[in-house]
Protein backbone atom coordinates (compact mmCIF):
# COMPACT_ATOMS: atom_id res chain seq x y z
CA UNK A 1 0.00 0.00 0.00
CA UNK A 2 1.34 3.45 -0.94
CA UNK A 3 2.11 5.85 1.84
CA UNK A 4 0.58 9.32 1.65
CA UNK A 5 3.62 10.75 3.42
CA UNK A 6 6.13 12.25 0.96
CA UNK A 7 9.75 11.14 0.98
CA UNK A 8 12.49 13.77 0.95
CA UNK A 9 14.11 14.45 -2.40
CA UNK A 10 16.81 16.94 -3.33
CA UNK A 11 16.53 19.24 -6.33
CA UNK A 12 19.91 18.48 -7.87
CA UNK A 13 19.81 20.75 -10.91
CA UNK A 14 17.71 21.85 -13.87
CA UNK A 15 17.85 23.52 -17.28
CA UNK A 16 15.32 25.37 -19.42
CA UNK A 17 13.92 23.14 -22.15
CA UNK A 18 11.16 24.82 -24.12
CA UNK A 19 8.76 27.68 -23.51
CA UNK A 20 8.08 28.06 -19.75
CA UNK A 21 9.41 24.53 -19.33
CA UNK A 22 12.34 23.04 -17.44
CA UNK A 23 13.91 19.61 -17.17
CA UNK A 24 14.50 18.85 -13.48
CA UNK A 25 16.92 16.41 -11.89
CA UNK A 26 15.98 15.03 -8.45
CA UNK A 27 17.61 12.65 -5.98
CA UNK A 28 15.85 10.62 -3.31
CA UNK A 29 17.35 11.18 0.13
CA UNK A 30 17.71 8.78 3.02
CA UNK A 31 14.66 8.64 5.23
CA UNK A 32 15.06 10.29 8.64
CA UNK A 33 16.03 8.48 11.85
CA UNK A 34 18.28 6.04 10.06
CA UNK A 35 15.48 3.93 8.61
CA UNK A 36 16.18 1.41 5.85
CA UNK A 37 16.62 1.99 2.12
CA UNK A 38 13.54 -0.06 1.29
CA UNK A 39 11.89 3.04 -0.12
CA UNK A 40 14.77 3.44 -2.59
CA UNK A 41 14.42 -0.20 -3.69
CA UNK A 42 10.72 0.42 -4.32
CA UNK A 43 11.46 3.45 -6.48
CA UNK A 44 14.09 1.53 -8.44
CA UNK A 45 11.28 -0.72 -9.69
CA UNK A 46 9.58 2.20 -11.44
CA UNK A 47 8.20 1.34 -14.88
CA UNK A 48 8.45 3.60 -17.89
CA UNK A 49 5.23 5.54 -18.21
CA UNK A 50 4.45 5.71 -14.49
CA UNK A 51 4.23 9.02 -12.62
CA UNK A 52 5.04 10.53 -9.22
CA UNK A 53 3.65 13.26 -6.98
CA UNK A 54 5.96 16.18 -6.25
CA UNK A 55 5.40 18.25 -3.12
CA UNK A 56 6.52 21.85 -2.68
CA UNK A 57 6.34 22.43 1.10
CA UNK A 58 3.51 24.70 2.27
CA UNK A 59 2.02 24.91 -1.25
CA UNK A 60 0.87 21.44 -2.28
CA UNK A 61 1.70 18.70 -4.75
CA UNK A 62 1.19 17.87 -8.40
CA UNK A 63 1.70 14.80 -10.64
CA UNK A 64 4.52 14.48 -13.18
CA UNK A 65 5.80 11.82 -15.56
CA UNK A 66 9.27 10.37 -15.23
CA UNK A 67 11.49 11.24 -18.18
CA UNK A 68 14.18 9.17 -16.52
CA UNK A 69 13.19 6.56 -13.94
CA UNK A 70 15.14 6.32 -10.66
CA UNK A 71 18.56 4.71 -10.92
CA UNK A 72 20.41 2.71 -8.26
CA UNK A 73 21.31 5.93 -6.44
CA UNK A 74 17.80 7.38 -6.50
CA UNK A 75 18.40 9.94 -9.25
CA UNK A 76 15.48 10.65 -11.60
CA UNK A 77 14.24 13.37 -13.94
CA UNK A 78 11.02 15.05 -15.01
CA UNK A 79 9.97 17.68 -17.53
CA UNK A 80 7.81 20.33 -15.84
CA UNK A 81 5.94 23.25 -17.36
CA UNK A 82 5.24 26.37 -15.33
CA UNK A 83 1.46 26.48 -15.02
CA UNK A 84 0.12 26.88 -11.46
CA UNK A 85 1.13 27.71 -7.91
CA UNK A 86 3.14 24.53 -7.29
CA UNK A 87 5.14 24.69 -10.51
CA UNK A 88 5.64 28.46 -10.26
CA UNK A 89 7.13 28.00 -6.78
CA UNK A 90 9.29 25.14 -8.06
CA UNK A 91 10.73 27.42 -10.75
CA UNK A 92 11.86 29.84 -8.04
CA UNK A 93 13.87 27.24 -6.09
CA UNK A 94 17.61 26.78 -6.23
CA UNK A 95 19.55 23.55 -6.57
CA UNK A 96 20.08 21.80 -3.25
CA UNK A 97 16.65 22.50 -1.79
CA UNK A 98 14.59 19.60 -0.45
CA UNK A 99 11.12 18.72 -1.72
CA UNK A 100 8.76 15.82 -1.14
CA UNK A 101 7.87 12.97 -3.50
CA UNK A 102 5.38 10.10 -3.50
CA UNK A 103 5.26 7.21 -5.93
CA UNK A 104 5.76 5.61 -8.28
CA UNK A 105 2.12 5.38 -9.31
CA UNK A 106 -0.02 3.96 -12.07
CA UNK A 107 0.46 1.54 -14.93
CA UNK A 108 3.29 2.19 -17.35
CA UNK A 109 3.88 1.30 -20.97
CA UNK A 110 3.69 -2.46 -21.75
CA UNK A 111 7.41 -2.75 -22.52
CA UNK A 112 7.39 -6.56 -22.65
CA UNK A 113 4.69 -6.49 -25.31
CA UNK A 114 6.52 -3.78 -27.25
CA UNK A 115 9.75 -5.78 -27.45
CA UNK A 116 10.95 -6.64 -30.97
CA UNK A 117 8.01 -4.94 -32.69
CA UNK A 118 7.45 -2.20 -35.24
CA UNK A 119 6.79 0.76 -32.93
CA UNK A 120 5.35 4.18 -33.73
CA UNK A 121 5.52 6.76 -30.90
CA UNK A 122 3.61 10.04 -31.22
CA UNK A 123 3.80 12.91 -28.73
CA UNK A 124 2.33 16.39 -28.66
CA UNK A 125 3.63 19.29 -26.55
CA UNK A 126 4.38 18.23 -22.97
CA UNK A 127 2.98 14.84 -23.97
CA UNK A 128 6.39 13.79 -25.19
CA UNK A 129 7.53 13.49 -21.55
CA UNK A 130 5.84 10.11 -20.80
CA UNK A 131 7.43 8.68 -23.96
CA UNK A 132 11.04 9.62 -23.18
CA UNK A 133 12.00 6.70 -20.96
CA UNK A 134 10.20 4.23 -23.26
CA UNK A 135 12.07 5.45 -26.34
CA UNK A 136 15.36 5.50 -24.43
CA UNK A 137 14.82 1.95 -23.17
CA UNK A 138 14.00 0.61 -26.63
CA UNK A 139 17.06 2.29 -28.12
CA UNK A 140 19.36 1.20 -25.29
CA UNK A 141 18.29 -2.44 -25.52
CA UNK A 142 17.89 -2.38 -29.31
CA UNK A 143 14.83 -4.59 -28.96
CA UNK A 144 12.68 -3.22 -31.77
CA UNK A 145 12.41 -4.04 -35.46
CA UNK A 146 11.43 -0.47 -36.32
CA UNK A 147 11.04 2.60 -34.11
CA UNK A 148 9.77 5.96 -35.35
CA UNK A 149 8.93 9.10 -33.38
CA UNK A 150 6.57 11.90 -34.38
CA UNK A 151 6.53 15.02 -32.21
CA UNK A 152 4.31 18.06 -32.59
CA UNK A 153 4.57 21.54 -31.07
CA UNK A 154 2.74 24.83 -31.59
CA UNK A 155 5.92 26.76 -32.44
CA UNK A 156 9.64 26.11 -32.59
CA UNK A 157 10.02 28.03 -29.32
CA UNK A 158 7.53 25.71 -27.66
CA UNK A 159 9.43 22.55 -28.63
CA UNK A 160 10.51 20.54 -25.59
CA UNK A 161 13.02 17.81 -24.81
CA UNK A 162 15.38 19.23 -27.38
CA UNK A 163 18.53 17.33 -26.29
CA UNK A 164 16.66 14.02 -26.37
CA UNK A 165 15.21 14.58 -29.84
CA UNK A 166 18.58 15.74 -31.13
CA UNK A 167 20.19 12.56 -29.82
CA UNK A 168 17.44 10.26 -31.10
CA UNK A 169 17.43 11.62 -34.65
CA UNK A 170 20.89 10.13 -35.21
CA UNK A 171 19.54 6.68 -34.30
CA UNK A 172 15.88 6.50 -35.37
CA UNK A 173 13.58 8.47 -37.71
CA UNK A 174 12.26 11.56 -35.87
CA UNK A 175 9.58 13.75 -37.45
CA UNK A 176 9.04 17.16 -35.86
CA UNK A 177 5.92 19.12 -36.79
CA UNK A 178 5.44 22.85 -36.19
CA UNK A 179 1.81 23.96 -36.09
CA UNK A 180 2.45 27.59 -37.05
CA UNK A 181 4.41 26.43 -40.10
CA UNK A 182 7.61 28.32 -39.22
CA UNK A 183 10.12 25.51 -39.58
CA UNK A 184 13.86 26.03 -39.85
CA UNK A 185 14.28 24.17 -43.10
CA UNK A 186 15.67 20.99 -41.58
CA UNK A 187 14.84 17.72 -43.28
CA UNK A 188 13.00 16.42 -40.21
CA UNK A 189 10.79 19.48 -39.58
CA UNK A 190 7.38 19.81 -41.17
CA UNK A 191 4.61 22.42 -41.03
CA UNK A 192 1.35 21.29 -39.45
CA UNK A 193 0.51 18.69 -36.83
CA UNK A 194 1.36 15.01 -36.30
CA UNK A 195 -1.97 14.12 -37.94
CA UNK A 196 -0.94 15.97 -41.11
CA UNK A 197 2.16 13.88 -41.74
CA UNK A 198 0.82 10.60 -40.37
CA UNK A 199 -0.03 9.12 -43.81
CA UNK A 200 3.54 9.72 -45.01
CA UNK A 201 5.01 8.29 -41.82
CA UNK A 202 2.88 5.16 -42.08
CA UNK A 203 4.14 4.66 -45.65
CA UNK A 204 7.69 4.32 -44.29
CA UNK A 205 6.68 1.26 -42.30
CA UNK A 206 5.85 -0.96 -45.25
CA UNK A 207 3.85 -3.18 -42.94
CA UNK A 208 1.56 -1.65 -40.33
CA UNK A 209 3.00 -0.63 -36.95
CA UNK A 210 2.57 -3.43 -34.42
CA UNK A 211 2.51 -1.02 -31.47
CA UNK A 212 1.55 2.66 -31.27
CA UNK A 213 2.28 4.80 -28.21
CA UNK A 214 0.37 8.08 -27.92
CA UNK A 215 0.88 10.90 -25.42
CA UNK A 216 -0.32 14.48 -25.50
CA UNK A 217 -3.60 16.38 -25.69
CA UNK A 218 -6.54 13.99 -25.55
CA UNK A 219 -8.19 15.42 -28.66
CA UNK A 220 -5.00 14.76 -30.63
CA UNK A 221 -4.62 11.23 -29.28
CA UNK A 222 -8.25 10.29 -29.89
CA UNK A 223 -8.19 11.65 -33.44
CA UNK A 224 -4.98 9.80 -34.27
CA UNK A 225 -6.20 6.56 -32.68
CA UNK A 226 -9.42 6.69 -34.71
CA UNK A 227 -7.44 7.35 -37.89
CA UNK A 228 -5.06 4.46 -37.20
CA UNK A 229 -7.88 2.00 -36.59
CA UNK A 230 -9.55 3.08 -39.84
CA UNK A 231 -6.17 2.66 -41.55
CA UNK A 232 -5.98 -0.93 -40.36
CA UNK A 233 -3.96 -0.79 -37.14
CA UNK A 234 -5.47 -3.01 -34.44
CA UNK A 235 -7.18 -1.13 -31.59
CA UNK A 236 -5.38 -3.56 -29.25
CA UNK A 237 -2.04 -2.25 -30.52
CA UNK A 238 -2.67 1.38 -29.58
CA UNK A 239 -1.77 2.71 -26.11
CA UNK A 240 -2.50 6.18 -24.74
CA UNK A 241 -1.09 8.03 -21.74
CA UNK A 242 -4.04 9.90 -20.24
CA UNK A 243 -3.25 13.09 -18.35
CA UNK A 244 -5.50 14.03 -15.45
CA UNK A 245 -5.20 16.17 -12.33
CA UNK A 246 -4.36 13.39 -9.88
CA UNK A 247 -4.88 14.86 -6.40
CA UNK A 248 -4.26 11.71 -4.33
CA UNK A 249 -2.75 9.28 -6.89
CA UNK A 250 -4.23 6.27 -5.05
CA UNK A 251 -7.84 6.25 -6.26
CA UNK A 252 -9.61 7.85 -3.31
CA UNK A 253 -10.26 11.50 -4.20
CA UNK A 254 -12.14 10.91 -7.45
CA UNK A 255 -10.61 13.82 -9.37
CA UNK A 256 -9.34 11.55 -12.16
CA UNK A 257 -12.44 9.34 -12.31
CA UNK A 258 -13.10 7.94 -15.81
CA UNK A 259 -16.43 6.08 -15.93
CA UNK A 260 -15.66 3.01 -13.81
CA UNK A 261 -11.90 3.56 -13.52
CA UNK A 262 -9.32 6.01 -12.23
CA UNK A 263 -6.54 7.44 -14.36
CA UNK A 264 -4.15 7.31 -11.40
CA UNK A 265 -4.54 3.60 -10.56
CA UNK A 266 -5.93 2.02 -13.74
CA UNK A 267 -3.81 4.27 -15.97
CA UNK A 268 -2.28 6.55 -16.94
CA UNK A 269 -1.60 4.04 -19.72
CA UNK A 270 -4.77 2.71 -21.37
CA UNK A 271 -5.21 0.48 -24.40
CA UNK A 272 -7.46 2.13 -26.99
CA UNK A 273 -10.05 -0.67 -27.05
CA UNK A 274 -10.22 -0.64 -23.23
CA UNK A 275 -10.32 3.12 -22.67
CA UNK A 276 -13.20 3.73 -20.26
CA UNK A 277 -14.38 6.98 -21.89
CA UNK A 278 -13.91 8.41 -25.39
TrEMBL record:
Binds 1 FAD per subunit. Binds 1 [2Fe-2S] cluster per subunit. FAD binds at residues 79-81. The keyword Iron-sulfur applies. The keyword Flavoprotein applies. It comes from the Bacteria. Residues 4-111 form the FAD-binding FR-type domain. This is Oxidoreductase. It comes from Photobacterium proteolyticum.
Amino acid sequence: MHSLTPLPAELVDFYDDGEHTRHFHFRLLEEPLGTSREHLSHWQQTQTGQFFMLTVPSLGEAPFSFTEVPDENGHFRALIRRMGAVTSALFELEAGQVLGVRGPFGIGWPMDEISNKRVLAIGGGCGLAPLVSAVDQLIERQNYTQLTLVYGARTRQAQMLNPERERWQHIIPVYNTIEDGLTNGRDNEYPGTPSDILPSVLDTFGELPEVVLLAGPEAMMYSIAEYLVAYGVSAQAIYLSIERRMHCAVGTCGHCYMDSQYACTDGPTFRWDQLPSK
